[in-house]
Specification:
Radius of gyration: 23 Å
Largest sheet: 10 strands, mixed
Number of helices: 13
Strand content: 25-35%
Shape: globular
Number of strands: 19
CATH architecture of the largest domain: 2-Layer Sandwich
CATH superfamily of the largest domain: Dihydrodipicolinate Reductase, domain 2
CATH topology of the largest domain: Dihydrodipicolinate Reductase, domain 2
Helix content: 25-40%
Number of domains: 2
């Protein structure tokens, strides 16, 4: 029956009497991964490539259902692709007591979590209490009331010498990395502006699309994806990346305090309306399920996935727009816009139609007379960066100074998951390598996302009274 249901090369059922290896350091044969209840395709993208220090044997614990089958189908696709196939061997336990069974058996050392965000922090805490490292996709929490739980989990990891790591793929996008480098150079940017709530110094916008392909195949969204109480709204979900980038760029290698350095000033929310046909196309469901009926208006489902938040981080004002559209325009995809304003120039990422929907980085002087000295400073800095970013160059465009980036450095979003895993494994080799600012800045990040959505809901409720 299993072989008929699951399109995977080898299926081995877990046995109740197996004994876990739980020794410090990398075990013989490599680190072993455990995937817990994969509810989002990001769990599969961890396996798109192999890793020399990771065993090909993977343990999967989940309830039997469409999420598990979709996850296995994606792993099967990676194992059977014509070019550079992987060789993952999956040992699967499918049952309602999947968490308890995983904790009792402890077959691996690293637990991967993605999706099923409501209550995720409790599962993370349970894994850490059991002595397991955690590699978890965003978001870890959805409500401000969960911040103490996040804090407790991070303290458990530190106390037990474990790594609990948030999968922040956007730190590995080359335009974001170069924006960080150039924004830190005062000869280029000048002093970072402070801005105001109406005219922020930092503005970022991300546009994602509900209907999309993953690894070249149209991705059916699980019904839980549209339950904002399970998945989160735009800001608490994908907006986590924008919040992370802001503090990662503005305050590199610095620890922030979530209770002292953050003031959330305003929040907004609004829906993206889906017709029944659009909903069927992206989920496979013939109609809106009962648990989503409260968001159905007439013949449309109002998906509250769009958010705006304005906040102050230390003394810098920031505005973030997290937007979802149903489907990307022809030739397009998800887009990212980011501008950081300084006293001499602004450093800006654009990814619209003029850029052929590919992120491009610009430095735009505030005054024409500063163009020549800023260009000189840019040439110097790009020369210094050649070892890490070989081939980056500089050209003038009507918009400003354009940082040219060779295709070899543009590996794509799905490949960033592999880069995150490599960094995580590097931290595991010597836990002291994990920067001290990661844990406090996670608290800052999730304080902004959760408080921003809470403020948006409060503002909307006040408008409807």
């Amino acid at each position: 029956m299993w072989r008929e249901l699951l399109p995977i090369t080898v299926i081995l059922l877990a046995t109740r009497n197996s004994v876990a290896e739980n020794r410090p350091g990398k075990p013989k044969g490599g680190w072993r991964l455990v995937t817990l209840d994969p509810g989002h395709f990001h769990a599969a993208l961890i396996h798109k490539r192999a890793y020399p220090d990771v065993s090909p044997q993977v343990f999967v614990y989940a309830p039997l259902g469409p999420d598990l089958l979709a996850h296995l189908a994606r792993i099967h696709q990676f194992n059977t692709r014509p070019e550079d196939p992987t060789s993952w061997r999956l040992q699967i336990y499918a049952g309602p007591d999947f968490l308890e069974r995983m904790l009792a058996e402890k077959h691996g050392q690293i637990v991967v979590l993605s999706g099923h965000n409501r209550g995720k922090i409790g599962r993370i805490q349970a894994c850490l209490d059991a002595g397991l490292h955690v590699l978890a996709d965003k978001p870890w929490i959805l409500e401000p009331s969960e911040l103490p739980l996040l804090q407790a989990a991070l303290r458990t990891a530190e106390r037990n010498g474990l790594i609990a790591y948030d999968i922040m793929t956007e730190r590995f996008e080359v335009t974001n990395m170069l924006q960080r480098e150039l924004a830190a150079d005062r000869e280029i940017l000048g002093d970072i502006e402070r801005g105001s709530p109406d005219s922020p110094a930092v503005v970022m916008e991300s546009v994602h699309h509900i209907y999309k392909t993953v690894a070249g195949v149209p991705a059916l969204r699980p019904l839980s994806f549209f339950d904002i109480e399970e998945q989160g709204e735009g800001l608490t979900d994908v907006g986590t990346h924008l919040v992370d980038l802001v503090q990662w760029i503005l305050f590199p290698e610095q620890s922030l305090d979530w209770q002292e350095d953050v003031t959330v000033l305003a929040g907004e929310r609004w829906p993206e309306a889906l017709t029944r046909e659009q909903f069927r196309r992206v989920t496979g469901a013939e109609d809106f399920p009962d648990n989503l009926r409260r968001w159905v208006r007439g013949d449309r489902f109002e998906y509250y996935c769009n958010n705006r938040v304005v906040y102050r981080l230390r003394d810098v004002h920031v505005r973030l727009d997290v937007l979802w559209r149903y489907e990307a325009p022809a030739g397009g995809g998800d887009t990212h816009y980011a501008v950081i304003r300084g006293s001499r120039a602004r450093v800006e990422i654009r990814q619209g139609a003029p850029e052929n929907f590919r992120p491009e980085l610009y430095v735009i002087p505030n005054r024409k007379e500063d163009l020549a000295p800023i260009r000189t400073a840019l040439e110097r800095r790009l020369g210094e960066l050649q070892k890490r970013y070989p081939g980056v160059g500089l050209r003038e465009r009507e918009l400003g100074l354009w940082i040219t980036i060779p295709d070899a450095l543009r590996v794509g979003h799905e490949a960033h998951f592999g880069e995150v895993v490599e960094r995580f494994l590097w931290y595991l080799e010597e836990p002291g390598r994990l920067p001290g600012w990661e844990a406090p800045n996670m608290l800052v990040k999730y304080a902004i996302t959760t408080q921003g959505v809470a403020l948006a809901r409060k503002a909307q409720a006040a408008q409807t009274q």
